[in-house]
Amino acid sequence: MSDEPIISIRDLKNAFGDQVVHEGLDLDVRQGEILGVVGGSGTGKSVLMRSIIGLQEPVAGEISILGERIDMATAEENLDLRRRWGVLFQNGALFSTLTVAENVQVPLREFYKYLDEQLLNEIATYKVVMTGLPADAAPKYPSELSGGMRKRAGLARALALDPILLFLDEPTAGLDPIGAAAFDELIAELKEALGLTVFLITHDLDTLYTICDRIAVIADKKVIATGTIEELLATDHPWIQEYFNGPRGRAAVAAQG
Amino acid sequence: MSGEADFTEIDENGERVLRFSGRLTVARLGDVPVRLEELGIAPDRADISAVERIDTIGAWILHRLERDYGTEIAGASDHAKQLLHHVSCADEPQPARLDDRNLVVRTVERVGAATIEALSSLKGLLAFFGGLMIATGSVIRHPRRLRLNAVVQRFETVGLAALGIVGLMSFLIGIVIAQQGAVQLRQFGAEVFTINLLGRITMRELGILMTAIMVAGRSGSAFAAQLGSMKLAEEVDAMRTIGIPPMEALVLPRVLATTLMLPLLGFYAAIMMIMGGGLLCWYELGIPPATFISRIREVVPMTDLWVGLIKAPVFGFIIGLTGCYFGMQVEGNNEQVGLKTTAAVVQAIFLVIVLDAFFAIFFSSIGWI
């Protein structure tokens, strides 16, 4: 069961006009792992995520999630799939006119109309607390929260439907090192507790070292390597070597002891 | 396999036991929460050994039983135990929104808040006016700091781009005034006075007033929305840090543009109204254009033109000022942009009409009747 990839991408091609972002991209995400996706700026990490979650129509190739081809799925099947993943966008993308608790309730209200008000409130609050926010953050508006708190609130909304698959787009970008480390820990903890599979785009070497089970490297329009850090270090691709053996890479290794 | 969540109540050696089955997940809960709510007597035990799958929302339902009734949860798998532990750690009641007070208190509070806001926005507007005067003073002392390009660009968007719509509106209003005037005055055989009515009301009042309303809706709202979204994107703060005073760079060109453009647009509107009315007089009353023009010159005194032209820059100033002021008041979220834009237009039109009333009294008391 766990050998069956939860996301499988074959021969993906993405392009904006003449500018080709991905060509012949293959990638598997296995059940129950945290897959870190790295790549230089502009290599299309976010585009890859957007094409998996259906916000960007690929030019060619196939993407299967939980064994279903998303390009073949009917609108209804797509909606069904959507309930089974949560997405945390780079800046949280919280609805600014709703409070944090109401943000968390949005997907619940949309999909499960039979939940009563009291239960919705309780669910929203425990989700908020679960992501490490104080309970009194629930009735606040996103604009009243700090950047780090907003990310946690975004995570609470992503987890609203108890997804089995979680997409995170640079979750630790813009956080201070302590906040970033705490966020990494939170993701690892929630992954264990809820049995999540996590697709994580990051630039943060510490995140890669501490919580990622495998890492996929995007360069030259495709995934050039996947594996653990040790496996990646064994390859001789110049970008990978520079990435992990540059001054920041070495510092991250040193920090791991 | 994919069973809906369900439970049965059974009696086991004198203990009330709820036996759960199916999938205790958000997608399959069905009426379980409602039925649990309606339980009369506290169950002693909940047996979940037959539950196929559970998620945090299912765990939360069980946690509620445990919390509210002291029900013992039995037969939980390791995964379920972990989830139960997680949700129970996160149990801190908090409303989704903090406004659960009673209606009377809320109404009184709202009235109070609205009053305070109205007064403080008036005060704020005055302070903003002061700030603008200081900025104007410093620009007069250092004329090079005037952003001529920005000003000219605003001239185009506020003035030139409005010519079409203001012209059309005015032309039509001219026709309506002349037509209504002709119908009423004909009853006294005085339809020739339609020309007096048309000439005087357009020059003195309507030309400027209608243009002011149009410009408030067109440019005042645009100013508020532009500055509001710049404020949200922290562009205004960025300007301040670089050392560009937003008052000089953003507000002054806009206010200057409305102040200078409104007299021109207003005069143009009055002329268009007279043309529209003239057309109707020719068609309906048989007054040829040459006669119409010479009558207009006889009955409209020069002071009427001055009345209009003196009011116009004041109105333009008010419109630019309120638009910019409310734009700069935007804080927090996107909804604010909409709210402040509305407020800017409403306030601008309101202030223009109040001032117009004062002007009317003023001009008649100095004898410009």
TrEMBL record, chain A:
State the source organism's domain of life: Bacteria
**Which residue numbers delimit the ABC transporter domain?**
7-245
Any idea what this protein is called? ABC transporter ATP-binding protein
Q: Please provide, alphabetically and separated by semicolons, the GO molecular function terms listed in this UniProt record.
A: ATP binding; ATP hydrolysis activity
Disulfide bond recorded as keyword: no
> Does this entry carry the keyword Transferase?
no
Q: Which UniProt keywords apply?
A: ATP-binding, Nucleotide-binding, Transport
Automatic annotation (TrEMBL), chain B:
Q: What is the organism of origin for this protein?
A: Parasphingopyxis marina
Query: Where in or outside the cell is it found?
Result: Cell inner membrane
> What job does this protein perform?
Could be part of an ABC transporter complex.
Q: Please name the InterPro entries in this protein's record.
A: ABC_MlaE_roteobac, Permease_MalE
What are the annotated GO cellular component locations?
A: ATP-binding cassette (ABC) transporter complex
Q: What family, per the record?
A: Belongs to the MlaE permease family.
Look up the signal peptide feature and give its range.
none
The keyword 4Fe-4S belongs to this UniProt entry's keyword annotation: no
Ordered alphabetically, the record's keywords are: Cell inner membrane, Cell membrane, Membrane, Transmembrane, Transmembrane helix
Record-annotated membrane-spanning stretches:
122-140, 160-178, 206-225, 260-285, 305-328, 348-368
Q: What is this protein called?
A: ABC transporter permease
Topology in the lipid bilayer is annotated as: Multi-pass membrane protein
State one molecular function term (GO).
Answer: phospholipid transporter activity
